[in-house]
Amino acid sequence: MKIGVTIPNNWGVEDPQQVLALGPLAEDLGFDSLWVMDHLFNTGYIRERLEDKPYYHPLGTLTYLSATTKSISLGTSVLVLPYHNPVELAKYAATLDQMSGGRVILGVGVGAMTEEFEALGISMRQRASLTNECIAIMKELWTNPNPSYHSRRWSFSNLRFSPKPVQKPHIPLWIGGSSPAALRRVATVGDGWHPSGMSAEEFSLGRREIRDMAQAAGRDPDSLAMSMRVEVEVHGGPSSDRAASRARISGQDSGQMVAAIEAYRSAGVDHLVLALNSGDIPALKTVMETIAREVIPQVR
């Protein structure tokens, strides 16, 4: 099992250098991956947490970290695809994959924040079709030397697109969410599954459903990465009322943490992302060091 950790680009840390310093620290401590979040406005539950404090751009954050780390994977958990132009995103992601030496993982999802969709002038009713088209367009641009795509929204042909990603056939696209539509998307067009806040039992059931659908679609279920993001309680409890309704792992008891991670491993998780949902940098460092010293050696 691989173990990743989130970087608090979304927790209102006023000094970005404090956020960025956690990347090399995580690599030095032996974590396998770094993960950042994606929202464009501080609205809804994000505004309740941050008001006007910083929420740093996920790809901007990963771009900096690609230059200050050497081998650790760089992931998004998750990019809200309807918010992004798929051609521009494909260009940015491929450039980052080249500059990082093939270390990018794009966790992607449809989004769920009504206020943000309205502010961006995007129809929330069309978020699923937008997401599906974004995935198709990015794959076309990344893999075809003569990319072509035609729909009501986007149309191009007889154009060149570069750079292509280092990773072949393309940058892994791990699908977030746990709805029936999300599971179908994983099984039919995704390279992996990346939900958040599920119990081990819930994950196991979803994994089984995805594997069955992938098999029915003529895909190899074993080719799909099975990932999961779960909160680690940095301060001994849930980070918010919203987090209180989701599965979490104790951040104070190493034995409980090992047992929880082993339960996720048994459920079929092969890449677990530990969400350290706090802007308290000293506390984050302490938890990261404890995990590296007392947990990772026992779960590898």
Lateral arrangement of strands in the main beta sheet: 1-2-3-4-7-8-9-11
User: How many domain regions?
Assistant: 1
Q: Strand content of the residues, in percent?
A: 15-25%
Instruction: Give the C-level CATH assignment.
Output: Alpha Beta
User: Could you tell me how far the N terminus lies from the C terminus, measured between alpha carbons in angstroms?
Assistant: 6 Å
Structural class: alpha/beta
Mean pLDDT: 97
The total count of strands amounts to: 11
Helices and strands, in order, run as EHHEHHEHEHHEEEHEHEHEHEH
Unreliable stretches, pLDDT < 50, 5 or more residues? none
CATH architecture: Alpha-Beta Barrel
**Biggest sheet details:** 8 strands, parallel, barrel
Question: What would CATH call the homologous superfamily?
Answer: Luciferase-like domain
Number of helices: 12
Give the C-alpha Rg. 19 Å
The coarse silhouette is: globular
Helix share bin: 40-55%
How are the SSEs ordered, and which strands pair?
Elements: E1 2-6, H1 16-20, H2 22-29, E2 33-36, H3 45-50, H4 58-68, E3 73-80, H5 86-100, E4 104-109, H6 114-120, H7 127-143, E5 149-150, E6 155-156, E7 173-175, H8 180-189, E8 192-193, H9 200-216, E9 225-233, H10 241-244, E10 248-250, H11 254-266, E11 271-275, H12 281-299
Parallel strand pairs: 1-2, 1-11, 2-3, 3-4, 4-7, 7-8, 8-9, 9-10, 9-11
Antiparallel strand pairs: 5-6
Helix pairs in contact: 2-12, 4-5, 5-7, 8-9, 9-11, 11-12
